[in-house]
Design goal:
23% strand; 5-stranded parallel sheet
Length: 279
């Protein structure tokens, strides 16, 4: 019952759906408020970055279809007690204040029990409550592939614990990276999150390990280098940590463009970066 943001096609489908709701509201004589109600499940990176883009898009849609912006309701529901847990309270508060000033309502520490044709069913004070909206977006976490659970034992949420060289126990010829990889750095208890920065470093490391093996050498242990993390709040604002320093505002937005463009460059070189980069 909820839209998901998985690739360019699902993003376009969601964008068209939201605009259709505004158009329907403007053309309808009965004016159903739920057409202008949007629910976002999850206040992690995907949810917050989507909300940032949405708060920039809504004024454009209101202007295009003659809709009173005060009628639009955007609600973000998060089960955890804190959004963006990798960031400091100062950065989180900056993001919350930025989005609340633009009309977003947050329901933190509110588990989503179910998603149905009306919207989300949430639990508040041990009581289930129906939140209704014309658009529901699921951004509350990712899981790996079901293929992992079908192929190996001890797999949780489609992710399998790897050894330090990114192979798995009993299979020295199988490397596991990205969203299906649960890599726990030596001396730590929790696996690294499923982010693009980590996946790309894993990919580069495994490529070198395979080259070493083909040359009769051993695979080496993976060491993640945290260069920082930036969460965009639309095209012109954001929050993040870069080399241990908190950044906000236009600096964060600029660094996000640098990070995205660098990722495109690593995939396709200068030509692709020039065509698809953020500058």
């Amino acid at each position: 019952y909820a839209f998901q943001i998985e690739n360019i096609e699902t993003a376009r489908k969601l964008s068209r759906h939201i605009e259709d709701k505004f158009a329907n509201y403007a053309a309808s004589k009965e004016k159903e408020d739920k057409d202008l109600a949007i629910l976002v499940g999850g206040a992690g990176f995907t949810g917050i970055e989507f909300l940032g883009e949405l708060t920039e898009r809504i004024p454009e849609l209101c202007n295009k279809y003659g809709v009173d912006q005060n009628k639009v309701r955007v609600t973000c529901v998060e089960a955890a007690p804190k959004m963006l847990p990798m960031f400091s309270d100062e950065l989180v508060n900056y993001a919350v204040n930025y989005l609340e000033d633009r009309g977003v309502e947050f329901k933190i520490a509110t588990p989503i029990v179910a998603c149905n044709e009306k919207g989300f069913v949430v639990k508040i004070n041990d009581q289930e409550q129906q939140l209704e909206a014309g658009t529901a977006i699921w951004a509350a976490g990712v899981r790996g592939s079901k293929l992992m659970e079908e192929s190996f034992e001890g797999v949780k949420r489609g992710r399998i614990v790897t050894k330090q060289d990114l192979t798995i126990e009993g299979h020295d010829d199988i490397f596991v990276i990205g969203d299906v990889s649960a890599f726990i750095p030596a001396g730590e208890e929790r696996p690294l999150p499923t982010t693009a920065q980590i996946a790309m470093q894993q990919g580069e490391h495994v490529a070198k390990s395979i080259k070493n093996i083909l040359n009769g050498q051993a695979a080496t242990d993976f060491e993640y280098v945290d260069r920082g993390t930036v969460c965009s709040l639309g095209a012109h604002d954001g929050v993040g940590i870069v080399y241990g320093r908190d950044i906000t505002g236009k600096k964060a937005a600029f660094m996000k463009k640098v990070i995205d463009t660098r990722a495109v460059f690593k995939i396709g070189g200068v030509g692709l970066a020039f065509k698809k980069g953020k500058f």
